[in-house]
Amino acid sequence: GAPIVFTLYILSSTDSVRLVDGSSHCAGRVEVLHRGQWGSVCDDGWDMRDAAVVCRELGCGEAVDVLGNSHFGPGSGPIWMDDVDCSGSESTLKNCRSAGWGKHNCNHTKNAGVICSGKLQYILRLVGGPRCTGRVEVLHGKTWDTVCDADFDQQDAEVVCRELGCGAPVKVLGAAAFGRGEGQVWSEELHCTGNESQIHLCPSSSTLKHNCFHEHDSVWLMDGGGHCSGRVEVLHRGQWGTVCDDDWDMRDAAVLCRELGCGEAVDVLGNSHFGPGSGPVWMDDVDCSGSESTLKNCTSAGWGKHDCNQTKNAGVICSGKML
Question: Beta strands 265-269 and 229-236: pairing type?
């Protein structure tokens, strides 16, 4: 009969843990090998000390961030570890305390993830939307920089989606659609052809020569669950700030909704209904006729002149399609 062939797989110690579905082998969902099968780790008690062990074990530098709730997508195998408690000095994640192999009260919506400092030039993520949707951010040191929407096109999106394992891009939106990033604007402009497997393979150039924000990004709505409802924020002198709800009415809201391409005004809300802003109060006593092309063209008390505070931020709900 036919000969029986045995294949011997030799695993090094670094093959007992891996990071999956991130933008590199140094970022992703944590998976461990046990009894010949890869499985995930529950995010209960998952912290930077645990992540430090994983990053060191993989030769990926230091832990930059820990992520739960299956940030990198759900695993499909068993959940091998729960309640992981590393001191941080262990040589391998398997040496850390846990509930025991396969013992957990968890499911695949709570898989643990890690981002290590790694050796890669860029580490990507999408923020502000469901998985595979959101504002594009790039890790710079230990902070996340927002990619400038003035420079970002369909070809760049093709590469981002491919690198993140997210298929083909459906639509490219301005960063304002998913809210404002906490970090700076990324200092590189991508020139991808669309065929690259990762953005670090794309040609790029410095984009410090211009202000990133387009005119249509001079106003946006925050913390409303979509880009067509939320707290009103306006950009002035390079800083985002809020609008006071004194005299804030449907004519003012109509201008804002039209400016954002969000249809008609449905409701106006005051008293910081969508939560308080953190920047300056830029506008007060706003009085639009309703025909202005932008909120900045409406009369007001003057930039930064107000008798208001962040408990009285104006809000809007527009009829537009929420993301």
Answer: unpaired
